[in-house]
From TrEMBL:
<dbReference type="Pfam" id="PF02798">
    <property type="entry name" value="GST_N"/>
</dbReference>
<comment type="similarity">
    <text>Belongs to the GST superfamily.</text>
</comment>
<protein>
    <submittedName>
        <fullName>Glutathione S-transferase family protein</fullName>
    </submittedName>
</protein>
<feature type="domain" description="GST C-terminal">
    <location>
        <begin position="82"/>
        <end position="202"/>
    </location>
</feature>
<feature type="domain" description="GST N-terminal">
    <location>
        <begin position="1"/>
        <end position="79"/>
    </location>
</feature>
<dbReference type="InterPro" id="IPR040079">
    <property type="entry name" value="Glutathione_S-Trfase"/>
</dbReference>
<dbReference type="InterPro" id="IPR004045">
    <property type="entry name" value="Glutathione_S-Trfase_N"/>
</dbReference>
<dbReference type="InterPro" id="IPR004046">
    <property type="entry name" value="GST_C"/>
</dbReference>
<dbReference type="InterPro" id="IPR036282">
    <property type="entry name" value="Glutathione-S-Trfase_C_sf"/>
</dbReference>
<dbReference type="Pfam" id="PF00043">
    <property type="entry name" value="GST_C"/>
</dbReference>
<dbReference type="InterPro" id="IPR010987">
    <property type="entry name" value="Glutathione-S-Trfase_C-like"/>
</dbReference>
<dbReference type="InterPro" id="IPR036249">
    <property type="entry name" value="Thioredoxin-like_sf"/>
</dbReference>
Amino acid sequence: MLTIYGVARSRAFRCLWAAEEAGIAYAHVPVMFGPEAQAPEFLALNPNGTVPAMRDGELVLFESLAINLHIAAKAGPPLLPIGADHSRVLQWTLWAATEIEPQVMQWARNSFMLPEAQRDAALAAAGRAAADLRLAVLEGHLAGRPFLLGEGFTIADCNLAGVLYGSWFRGYDLSALPRVAAWMERCMTRPAALTARRLREE
């Protein structure tokens, strides 16, 4: 049995969504970030003391996007394509982690995550500007295609939309990026996404 550790109001959301898309049975153990993630029994799963973590038989993984790639591999195509499209999935997954997530997190931390007295408006603006540059790349890529790899949804869409979910949910303005806005709407209203969102938003 696949087990996903971490509250839905964390990066574990991405893994819960991926498991729903894969249609595989899983158990959810809602470990809270902070003290619960520092407990010895959880550190045995994720020595970083962060959520999520995953156990699948003898395999234990941390890092949400790596967990998602493992989940997608269990499902196979079309969630995780083969051949050149497999490489494109890896490209967009790494782009999500390295190019866009640091920027949107800087905006989010200084817009709503930190206590108001600790927020820095200049850092929020800089994160927004850097994120918009990356989102312009995504806007161009989505011309003529509903999903990242073309006509069909893949784990690449789950990974990237999962990274963008928190900022999107908190009202990140995508009005200048209509293709990105429409793609996010397509991704986040999928039945599997709605199931995971209910766990997080309720």
